[in-house]
Specification:
By secondary structure, the protein is α/β, with parallel strands linked by helices. It has 3 domains: 160 residues, 3-Layer(aba) Sandwich (Adenylosuccinate Synthetase, Chain A, domain 1); 92 residues, Adenylosuccinate Synthetase, subunit A, domain 2, CATH 1.10.300.10; 159 residues, Adenylosuccinate Synthetase, subunit A, domain 3 (Adenylosuccinate Synthetase, Chain A, domain 3, Alpha-Beta Complex), CATH 3.90.170. It is built from 12 helices and 19 strands. Strands 7-5-2-9-1-10-14-18-19 form a 9-stranded mixed sheet, with helices on both faces. α3 packs across α4 and α3 packs parallel to α6. 48% of the residues are buried. Bound molecules: inosinic acid.
Length: 423
């Protein structure tokens, strides 16, 4: 059983890119199976930062084949910019293949995402503005455009209908309509640039599996943003949960033998929606965000920060069946006198140690029940697990026990080398 699924176990931005990069030398293939240009996976090597949005993180390792499978909502123009950036870095893109079944984020999807968010005012989701929701609506409504359609000039003719329909709504919402000739020109350029990458990903994936090669399914966003299981409606429009790897990636369930959950040792969320452990606005929250570098890799937006939420993490563990956990950003908590974690929520007059049945209850007042741990210093200096401060190891040990899943690695700095394997 040669498949690892790696996903974010919180609200995204857990540091998945770095962990995939660390695992890549032992892999034959990395597959992106959901999400789209809303993702930002960061890898830092010798101080040089690369942010990948749609191309799988494995591309930075020679010899690792990379696929973008049908569950991804693909923005062809963002992808062209990303492939150009990688080519300029000397990355070999011969290893990248994209399914013709990927639904495309068209220019009007981006425009609609922004116009709808603006019109929603205080009720906005706080999306990345990358067109995910409108594209997913067309996909589910079975009228979208797929990458294969872009390459076929006859099938591409539906662009006119899609644009006309979107323009009506854009005008109604007070936004500028888009011009058909400009969109058609952009489509022709994208078709030309992306044609060499397009291939049926199914035989490529199964070819590697049949030979016993190890494949990693690279999740984007996080379990709490899952369309079905997240804090709906403040969620993304695809399925970041482990199950998404089977539907979006084409992996048979029985091939999966490892599900890795990535968790930060604290919590963040970007966009709107409930976040029970969020720090109260003020100097502590601002200093923490600045020190932790918690700004969106895709949008640059300041992320909301808070203490670790064990209730949400237990929920993610239960739904995704993690076999291994990786805890990231341990060094960010260096120097805190006290470290906290929410072990239950008090809401509606009841104490909940598990997520309530209706996650919308979290939109009301929630009183987290805290557990407090002594803080630590200098975890960033550790080069082996045993060198971690005793207080940090106590905190990690508690997390492991509470979540009922082994912690295999801890990341204690942004660089590739700052990753400690469990002793
Ligand atoms: P969308 O995916 O752009 O539609 O945004 C829906 C929600 O998911 C918003 O709260 C976004 O901030 C959040 N989101 C989308 N992608 C990411 C990500 O890569 N990291 C963290 N949050 C994300």
């Amino acid at each position: 059983m040669p498949v690892t699924v790696l996903i974010g176990a919180q609200w995204g931005d857990e540091g998945k890119g770095k962990i995939i990069d660390a695992l890549a030398p032992s892999l034959q293939m990395v597959v992106r199976y959901q999400g789209g240009p809303n993702a930002g996976h960061t890898v830092i090597v010798n101080g040089h930062k690369t942010v990948l949005h749609q191309v799988p993180t494995g591309i930075l390792h020679a010899g690792v084949a990379c696929l973008i499978s049908p569950g991804v909502l693909l923005d062809p123009w963002e992808l062209m910019a990303e492939t150009t950036m990688l080519q300029e870095q000397g990355v070999d893109l011969e290893r990248l293949r994209i399914s013709p079944s990927c639904h495309l984020i068209m220019p009007w999807h981006r425009a609609l995402d922004r116009a709808r968010e603006k019109a929603a005012g205080a009720g906005a989701i706080g999306t990345t503005g990358r067109g995910m929701g409108p594209c997913a609506m067309d996909k589910a409504g079975r009228r979208g455009l797929r990458l294969g359609d872009l390459l076929d000039t006859r099938r591409r003719s539906v662009v006119g209908d899609g644009l006309a329909c979107a323009n009506e709504e854009l005008e109604r919402l007070g936004s500028e309509p888009l011009q058909l000739d400009e969109v058609e020109e952009a489509c022709a350029a994208a078709a030309l640039a992306l044609r060499p990458f397009v291939a049926d990903t199914r035989p490529l994936l199964h070819g590697v599996l049949d030979k016993g090669g190890r494949v990693l399914m690279e999740g984007a966003q996080g379990a709490m943003l899952d369309l079905d299981w997240g804090t709906w409606p403040y969620v993304t429009s695809t399925h970041p949960s482990a199950g998404g790897a089977c539907t979006g990636g084409g992996v048979p369930m029985r091939q999966v033998d490892q599900v890795i959950g990535i968790l930060k040792v604290y919590a963040t969320r970007v966009g709107n929606g409930p976040f029970p452990t969020e720090f109260a606005p003020g100097p502590f929250a601002d200093t923490f965000r600045q020190h932790a570098g918690e700004f969106g890799a895709t949008t640059g937006r300041p992320r909301r920060c808070g203490w670790f939420d064990a209730v949400a993490a237990r929920y993610a563990c239960q739904l995704n069946g993690f076999t291994d956990l990786v805890l990231t950003k341990l060094d960010v908590l260096d120097g805190q006198d006290e470290v906290r974690a929410a072990v239950a929520y008090e809401l509606d007059g009841h104490v909940h140690s598990q997520m309530p049945e209706d996650l919308r209850l979290l939109e009301g007042p929630v009183n987290p029940q805290w557990r407090s741990f002594p803080g630590w210093r200098d975890s960033a200096q550790a080069t082996h697990w045993q060198e971690l401060p005793a207080e940090a190891r106590t905190y990690l040990g508690w997390l492991e026990e509470d979540l009922g899943c082994p912690v295999r690695w801890v990341s204690n700095g942004p660089e590739r080398r700052s990753l400690l394997q469990r002793a």
